[in-house]
Write a structure and sequence with these properties.
The protein is α/β, with parallel strands linked by helices. It folds into 2 domains: about 160 residues, P-loop containing nucleotide triphosphate hydrolases (Rossmann fold, 3-Layer(aba) Sandwich), CATH 3.40.50.300; about 70 residues, no CATH class. The protein has 9 helices and 10 strands.
Length: about 250
């Protein structure tokens, strides 16, 4: 479980997050949704320690992450997998080397052990025989799957995904959603997904937080989001082509 309690974050005079509290549950796909510029990615970066914030705290299974020393945070960071927007693979490394990167950074595995783990992770995301291919030789969907393989290489307890379907066609986006849902259950991870993709919301949104102007404006799940009376959430939801087609006439 990951908790963010009363988080407030400013950039200069601009309040980006105001008194935000969230609770992400283990074994579930937890979503942060909202329009661009509302604070979704800022909240994610606060949770993983990439941004410092003025008020509040972050707990990982009741461990006070936000007040730990840099050295103490390292042990929790080893339990975190990150899927960045666009995949963020290293262009100079092939697929196999990309997946092995966190193993080299955080473990004392031998090369043979790292290769074995890389093969297991690539197989888990249904990518065989791509080990020696570089990112420039992979499709967009394949890049995302290699990035997922890298994110689970350390067998993480926590997985953060920032716009995992960005730039993908609908069919490939559905495959990525399904893969995230499957590995969340398989690894019993606490998974946090930042997205504005309503298809993802309706497919994998077991717990959902809607952010509006830096505040938590609504929370619920995929089963009740279409019936919301929240004006701002309704405008966001029914602005998508998918939900326009699903909306009762």
């Amino acid at each position: 479980m990951i908790e963010g309690l009363n988080i407030s974050k400013r950039f200069g005079d601009r309040m980006v997050l105001e008194n935000v509290s969230v609770r992400f549950e283990q074994g579930k796909t937890n979503l942060i949704i909202g329009q661009s510029g509302m604070g979704k990615t800022v909240l994610l970066k606060c949770l993983v320690g990439l941004f410092e914030f003025e008020e509040g705290k972050v707990l990982y299974d009741e461990r006070p992450f936000s007040t730990m020393s840099f050295y103490d945070k390292k042990s929790i960071r080893q339990e975190i997998g990150m899927l960045f927007q666009g995949g963020a693979l290293f262009d100079s490394l092939n697929a196999e080397e990309n997946v092995m990167f966190p193993l080299t950074m955080f473990t004392k595995m031998t090369l043979a052990e790292k290769l074995e783990r890389a093969n297991i992770c690539l197989s888990r995301v249904n990518l065989e025989n791509v080990n020696k291919l570089f990112p420039s030789e992979l499709s967009g969907g394949m890049k995302k799957r290699v990035a997922i393989a890298r994110a689970i290489a350390l067998n993480p307890k926590y997985l953060f995904c920032d716009e995992p379907n960005s730039g993908l066609d609908p069919q490939t986006a559905n495959l990525i959603d399904e893969l995230i849902k499957e590995i969340t259950l398989e690894y019993n991870m606490t998974t946090v997904v930042v997205t504005h993709d309503m298809n993802s919301v309706l497919e994998i949104g077991q717990k959902i937080y809607f952010i509006y102007k830096g505040k938590i404006w609504w929370e619920g799940n995929r089963d009740n989001i279409l019936d919301t009376d929240n004006h701002e959430l309704k405008a966001f939801v029914f602005n998508s082509e998918l939900t326009r087609r699903l909306r009762p006439q």
